[in-house]
## 1
Amino acid sequence: MSRFSEARAGSLRPVLLLALCALALGSCYSSDYERQVRANVSLLSDLSQKLADYCRAGFSLNGQPLSSEEMGEFYYAGKKASSFASMIRSGASNRASFREFEKLLRAYNQFVSEADQSRLEAPEKRIALQELLAEADSVKVQAQAVLDALDAERARKKSDLARPRLTPPIEHRDLVHRFAFHWSELVDRISNWQQGIRLHVAGEVQCRMHFVLEKRVDRR
């Protein structure tokens, strides 16, 4: 190997290493989707119930009014879940579970915003407790919808893996795109894993063989 080839190979090694790392991270990220979605759903659901308890207590904690710093816990969870959704949107937007997760985010953020607005108002001007609890219930219902969608996707994936994967029949013609002697035949399956099609070369070829000539073929 020449020095130039060695230098070029050496320069390609970091690129190949980065590519392999990216593929590994992508596969890990893809397989980790369900776990992370479930974790976010659990966090948002638990915090919405905690905020509902604060609503029932008149936004007081141990006899003291609930502070903005303590409300920050609920806003931070919403921002964290929204960042997670933005990060996976390009690869997960076609999944029903992700669409339900985005609905959960909207319901949760709306509940937190209305509860915080009510907290800042005087007690006589606050949003009715039943309305706030209804918002909390909608978050709970939407959280269950996300979990149901995840369960359905998992069941569908298991069903697809259990089903025998037969290659669909492919209509083919005779050599050089001419019609077969009688009619087009259907092959049973692809004969190899490189998308090759099985043809009856020694079968019903019309008249004579035709050859395809390519110009400027690189020789070795």
Note: Confidence is low (pLDDT under 50) at residues 1-13, 22-30, 178-189, 203-207.
## 2
Amino acid sequence: MAIKTPLPQGRTYAGLSAPERRAERRERLLDAALELFGTVGFAKTTIPMLCSAAGVTARHFYDDFDSREALLRTLYDGISEGVFERSMGALRLGEEDPRERIRNSTAAYFRYLTSDPRIARIYAIEAVGMHPELEQHRRAKREAFVRKMTKASQGFEDRGIDSRLLSAAIAGASHDLLLEWVLAPRRPSVEKMIDHDHDALDPDAGSSIAIRLRASRPGDRIGGRRRARYAVGEADRQPPEAAQEQRSEEHGEKERRAQAALEPVDARDAARRRSRAPGRRP
């Protein structure tokens, strides 16, 4: 019978094997990326800067990451997994009221991301729209979050609220509030953001956003999904024909105003031309 021999682990150095040293270098690179991407920004961070901060060579960098974008994606994945784990954990708590479950999830989202301003900046700014593949990956993560939130908010369906659209609104509002927190000279408290995010989307509080998400008819569906009709006044979405007609009317009104403004000038020009006609004295 053949005897299996263990795979060579390489020469130990400082008590660490080659795989252990590589894992340790990888962690140092991720720590350097968190610091530099989260303070200087991704666009201004170079690979030599990362290597210097991590205490590794460029060869060691490329052993683990193909590019800065690959490093950013790995860092983003770690942050998004932390957000997802905490937010979904709060949704799975035994609260029967969907409002409380959503509030708990939102609170977990904000508390985790604002625990370190570098994490918040990378999640809200640096990883957004930076690279096509990363953006597609980020949207897939968002979709998974919205689907879980949709399932948790199905208790609102009997109140005429489309749970899918409500969940998408929660995800969008939470991200934009986080962005506001990152950019604000005086950052709002986490509790204030939680309250505003919850109140803005609470249908029982008479929130305007929740009212806009009410489905007009339970059977109004397109493509198997309920479509919400938005009661948003002037910002209401319109069919293409109606929108085109409105734009035409607005354009016509602008032309009429411009013509009216020019009429006095034209009248003066005509008077001057008549005064200069042959046979007339100035």
Note: Residues 1-10, 207-213, 215-241, 258-266 have pLDDT under 50 and may be disordered.
